[in-house]
Write a structure and sequence with these properties.
The structure holds 2 protein chains of 2 kinds. By secondary structure, chain A is of the alpha/beta class. Chain A has 2 domains: about 1-200, Rossmann fold; about 215-290, Alpha-Beta Plaits (2-Layer Sandwich), CATH 3.30.70. Chain A has helices spanning about 40-50, 70, 90-100, 105-115, 130-140, 160-175, 185-190, 210-215, 255-265, 280-290; strands spanning about 1-10, 15-25, 30-35, 55-60, 65, 75-80, 145-150, 180-185, 195-200, 205-210, 215-225, 235-245, 245-255, 270-275. In chain A, the strands form 3 sheets. A 6-stranded mixed β-sheet of chain A has the order 6-7-8-3-9-10, sandwiched between helices. In chain A, helix 6 (about 160-175) links the parallel strand 7 and strand 8 (about 180-185). In chain A, helix 3 (about 90-100) runs parallel beside helix 5 and helix 4 (about 105-115) packs antiparallel against helix 5. Chain A is elongated and about 70 Å long. By secondary structure, chain B is of the alpha+beta class. Chain B has 3 domains: about 5-280, no CATH class; about 295-360, no CATH class; about 375-465, no CATH class. In chain B, helix 4 (about 65-90) runs parallel beside helix 7 (about 145-170). Chain B is globular and about 90 Å long. Classes of the chains: A alpha/beta, B alpha+beta. At the A-B interface, helix 1, helix 2, strand 6 and helix 3 of A face helix 1 and helix 5 of B.
Chain lengths: ~290, ~475
């Protein structure tokens, strides 16, 4: 179990992470979602032991990760722009990683053939997507306990994305690997993640199991025969509310039957309860927070 | 702990070290070939080396002189290795992606530093020994083989000191460009300081002697300053066993400076490791650690103001230096923004240079400049008398006088000229008397005085010199 408690980090004068507290269960795909500059990459670097938190603790099985070789052996970080040596080939990079981690050579070769990657060609001659594929197959051949991927699907075509997602899922099933993915592509995160944390301005605005969280959030559209008074909805656990004369759109947390029962007491002309996507939830959370601010 | 390679590397690090060497084998091969060509004398002709060597004041006339000048090429290679290797070894610190990769690896930072430092140091050792072997094979002067081996070992030792110092600077830098500039600046700074001190001294001497000649920096001071730079220590070791230069060099100073640099390198090693372990990898891109630009720029300013401002409050050189300082300031900040402290600092240095010059003038450059030298320091002297009013009989000079009795007479005559001298060249001036001294350590100084023949004491001195054969026939005196 990976536990981050009250993590704070400043980069220069900017307070990038503010009291971030997250528990990441094993054997999951955990998504770090947020707009650019939200602090996702900084959080990944703290988990990988590249940065040290200014305040707070980052524990893996109750031991700190920073400058701890044993714990770091269980963590592999693939950054958004992976480092490559001058004129290095995929084989060179594989050998480099293999000198630090246990790499399954036969699996690496299988992936390499599956994704049609020439290991003797210099990486500088690879396209951006091919480079990412190269580093991803190395990461999958290593299959560490925690695999940290920063925007790693950027530059991959939809077919490759699908193939990599299924490869990741298969490796999780084999090795009980936990994948922590940082991305601003929320649709994609919804497809692949089991759990998530949503970051906005260095703070976690919501987190938890994806299915459970989304089943708890509803978009409700109501129409009334009179002008709407916003105080009617004060008792609800609102995420956001948009009133247009006699019509209101609510994003609200709670059990659907209980919400229907409560809202029926307001005698709406029309009531429609819709499921919410992660992207919608993100947009409502962010825009509502900004409106409140 | 299970180790291999003695205490240097842990067994768990072996795969990485093997992979690292394997990944760089082509580069290692190219460098070794290049070093072999240099050490064998195949790449640079000996005549060119000898010419360059003579430019430093040493004449490689004999076989051993030639071998010394050839050996200095190896010295330059060792210096270059010590400059480039730290940048190569720690280049991963210079990019965000490199830091992400290396610092997320399952290894303690201290061990990561050790591995990269010692791989570089071992390579320096192997390369220097290889150069030594190739050199001895191609320059088989067997009678001096032990001296060459000893000098190569000293090259390696001082090269490692330099390598450690540059490692410290590279660890403190935040980009490849900064690492190159900072290491290069520290290399040049010691040379600039030597040159600046010479210029400042000569400017001071000109003030003190008020047009009566010039003086060079005393050799012991010059040697002390030059030994602040490790390449110069290597150079001194290289030529120390040349018979014709032994008298100019003080072995004890070279040993003291070598030991000083070894101690300094130990500190650099410890502090570089500590800096590496504690380094905040998220730091800004420009290098702002105190040992980098914040120290380097003011030091450079001070040295330039000292050397080229020549203790004046305002001159074209000072205005030019201010412009250079501004450019350096903007480069360091990576933006065109004037910090009010920068001009204040510059003015402070100019005032300091002025104050230092005034103090130097008041104290005869802290006792370093003596208008009349000590007789025991003088090897030989010559006197030249120039009659400004006699067109046909203009110059008369002595041959070099080396016997102590006549040297003493010349010096007492100089005392008379000093007392009788006119400060400017006006119509009363009829004679210019110039004394040229050569000292036991090879240094020289010149003193000139404007005097009139009508002064009795001047005439008496000239007559006495003529009687003693110090001056040959001189029509102006007749």
């Amino acid at each position: 179990m990976m536990e981050l408690h009250q993590i704070n980090k400043c980069l220069g004068k900017k307070h990038v992470l503010k009291d971030v507290t997250v528990s990441i269960p094993d054997g999951n795909i955990y998504g770090l979602i947020g707009p650019n500059g939200a602090g996702k990459s900084t959080l990944l670097r703290i988990i990988a032991g590249v940065y040290r938190a200014d305040r707070g603790s980052m524990m893996l099985d109750k031991e700190p990760v920073y400058d701890n070789a044993d714990k770091k052996r269980q963590v592999l970080f693939i950054s958004d722009e992976p480092f490559q040596f001058f004129h290095a080939t995929l084989k060179d990079m594989k050998n480099f990683y293999a000198s630090w981690y246990d790499l399954d050579e036969s699996l690496y070769q299988t992936y390499r053939e599956q994704f049609h990657l020439d290991e003797n060609k210099p990486l500088k001659n690879f396209s951006k997507g091919m480079k990412r594929q190269g580093f991803l197959i190395i990461a999958l051949a290593i299959a560490p306990r925690y695999l940290l991927l920063d925007e790693s699907f950027d530059g991959l075509d939809p077919l490759m994305r699908r193939e990599f997602k299924s490869a990741i899922t298969a490796r999780i099933a084999q090795k009980q690997m936990t994948v922590i993915l940082a991305s601003h592509d929320i649709k994609e995160m919804q497809e692949i993640c089991d759990a998530f944390a949503m970051l906005q301005d260095g703070q976690i605005v919501t987190s938890g199991n994806l299915v459970e969280t989304l089943s708890q959030v509803h978009r409700i559209q109501l129409a009334f025969d009179q002008l709407i008074d916003p105080t009617w909805f004060e008792e609800l656990d609102l995420i956001s509310m948009r009133v247009t004369s006699k019509v209101v759109n609510l994003y609200v947390r709670g059990q659907e039957p209980a919400l229907r029962e409560y809202l029926s007491t307001l005698h709406p002309l029309m009531m429609e309860v819709l499921p919410v996507s992660l992207e919608e939830l993100f947009i409502q959370k962010v825009s509502w927070k900004e409106n409140v601010q | 702990m299970n180790t291999f390679g003695g205490w240097l590397f842990h067994a768990s690090e072996r795969p990485y070290i093997k992979q690292y060497i394997n990944a760089n084998k082509h580069l290692i091969f190219v460098i070794m070939i290049f070093l072999s060509l240099i050490a064998s004398g195949s790449l640079v002709p000996s005549s060119l080396v000898s010419y360059a060597f003579m430019a430093f004041g040493f004449d490689p006339i004999n076989a051993y002189g030639l071998i010394t000048s050839d050996r200095s090429l190896v010295m330059i290679c060792v210096c270059m290795l010590s400059y480039f290797l730290p940048i190569f070894q720690f280049r991963f610190l210079m990019s965000a992606s490199g830091r992400d990769l290396y610092l997320s690896l399952p290894i303690k930072r201290e061990r990561l530093y050790h591995i990269h430092y010692f791989i570089g140091a071992l390579f320096m050792g192997v390369a220097t020994v290889w150069c030594g072997v190739v050199f001895l094979l191609f320059h088989p002067y067997n009678q001096r083989i032990l001296v060459s081996v000893f000098v190569f070992l000293l090259f390696l030792l001082i090269g490692l000191c330099l390598y450690t110092f540059f490692t410290f600077l590279v660890v403190k830098s935040h980009s490849l460009l900064d690492a190159f500039i900072i290491c290069m600046s520290y290399t040049l700074l010691s040379m600039m300081f030597t040159n600046a001190f010479q210029r400042f001294f000569q400017a001071g001497a000109a003030h003190i002697l008020i047009g009566n000649g010039f003086d060079t920096v005393p050799s012991h001071v010059q040697q002390f300053i030059s030994l602040l730079s490790p390449p110069w220590i290597m150079f001194h070791w290289n030529v120390l066993f040349l018979e014709d230069v032994q008298s100019h060099l003080s072995l004890i100073w070279v040993i003291v400076h070598t030991i000083m640099w070894m101690v300094f390198a130990c500190f650099c090693f410890v502090y570089a490791k500590r800096s590496f372990v504690r380094k905040k990898m998220e730091q800004r891109k420009d290098s702002q650690e105190w040992v980098t630009y914040p120290l380097l720029v003011p030091m450079g300013e001070a040295v330039l103001i000292l050397g080229y401002g020549e203790g004046q409050l305002c001159s074209f050189a000072i205005i030019l230096l201010f412009v250079f300082s501004l450019i350096a300031h903007f480069f360091v900040k990576r933006k065109i923004h004037l910090d009010w402290r920068m001009p204040l600092r510059f003015i402070g240095f100019v005032l300091l240079g002025y104050g230092l010059m005034q103090a130097s003038i008041a104290t005869d450059f802290f006792g370093l400049i003596q208008e009349i030298p000590k007789q025991e320091d003088v090897e030989m002297v010559s006197v030249q008398v120039f009659d400004t009013q006699c067109v046909d009989c203009s110059i008369l000079e002595t041959l070099w006088i080396q016997d102590s009795k006549r040297i003493s007479k010349v010096m007492s005559g100089q005392e008379t000229m000093m007392k009788s001298k006119l400060k400017t060249m006006d119509e009363d001036v009829s004679l210019i008397v110039t004394f040229q001294y050569v000292y036991h350590d090879g240094e020289e100084s010149i003193r000139s005085y404007y005097v009139t023949q009508e002064q009795t004491q001047v005439r008496t001195v000239l007559e006495e010199w003529k009687k003693l054969g110090i001056l040959r026939d001189f029509k102006g005196v007749e």
